[in-house]
């Protein structure tokens, strides 16, 4: 079976505002106020630790123990308001439905903890559109290691040789290279068309283009 594997944050949904809010809650608890702004959305798509690291760096010297101490608090803040400002990108639902109508399996492979990812896609109303969801803690490794990607394909009944990845970051690009599969990177994320610097097999300007693109890239 042909399979399209999606990243979640920054690919299917713009989750940056809720992620940044969770990180800023940690800094407010420490008495520093908000250390991150909407201009840091790209960092948000690289995960909670990346956001904390950036915020602490703006306060001066810090050590990883400070970051580690705040990470559980960040996850809790995020879980408490996971879909307050998060929105699916235009056309995402229609594109996934179209792929499934053409016989593709559709799955998610994300570096968000699996429990949070399951909660988010359920609240967004899209969980039934995906055969499998692999999170950061589903397996011992996470993207760009190939194992989570392989699991996302194989657990859906597909084969890696007949699959592709849709993502938005260098992590997704490296994952696709490790799996030796085509990669389409979205241009509606924070990097815009500058994401072309990663030399993916395709750039995706709008989800309307994805079904035909998948037909070309996955034989």
Automatic annotation (TrEMBL):
> Which positions make up the signal peptide?
none
**EC annotation from Swiss-Prot or TrEMBL:** 3.1.3.18
Pfam families given for it? HAD_2
**What is the top EC class of this enzyme, as a single word?**
hydrolase
Reaction(s) catalyzed by this protein?
A: 2-phosphoglycolate + H2O = glycolate + phosphate
Q: Which PANTHER family match?
A: PHOSPHOGLYCOLATE PHOSPHATASE
**What's the family?**
Belongs to the HAD-like hydrolase superfamily. CbbY/CbbZ/Gph/YieH family.
Name-wise, this protein is: phosphoglycolate phosphatase
State the organism named in the record.
Answer: Paragemmobacter amnigenus
């Amino acid at each position: 079976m042909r399979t399209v594997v999606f990243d979640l944050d920054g690919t299917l949904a713009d989750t940056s505002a809720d992620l940044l809010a969770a990180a800023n809650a940690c800094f407010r608890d420490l008495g520093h106020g908000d250390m991150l702004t909407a201009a840091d959305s790209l960092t948000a798509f690289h995960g909670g630790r990346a956001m904390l690291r950036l915020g602490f760096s703006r306060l001066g010297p810090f050590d990883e123990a400070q970051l580690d101490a705040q990470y559980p608090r960040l996850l809790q803040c995020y879980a408490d308001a996971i879909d307050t400002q998060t929105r699916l990108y235009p056309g995402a639902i229609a594109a996934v439905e179209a792929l499934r109508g053409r016989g593709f399996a559709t799955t998610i492979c994300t570096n968000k903890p699996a429990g949070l990812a399951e909660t988010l896609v359920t609240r967004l109303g899209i969980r039934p559109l995906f055969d499998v969801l692999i999170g950061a803690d589903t397996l011992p490794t996470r993207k760009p290691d190939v194992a989570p990607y392989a699991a996302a394909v194989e657990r859906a009944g597909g084969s890696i040789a007949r699959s592709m990845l849709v993502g938005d970051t260098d992590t997704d690009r490296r994952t696709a290279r490790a799996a030796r599969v085509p990669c389409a990177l979205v241009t509606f994320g924070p990097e815009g068309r500058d994401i072309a610097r990663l030399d993916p097999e395709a750039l995706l300007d709008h989800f309307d283009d994805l079904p035909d693109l998948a037909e070309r890239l996955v034989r």
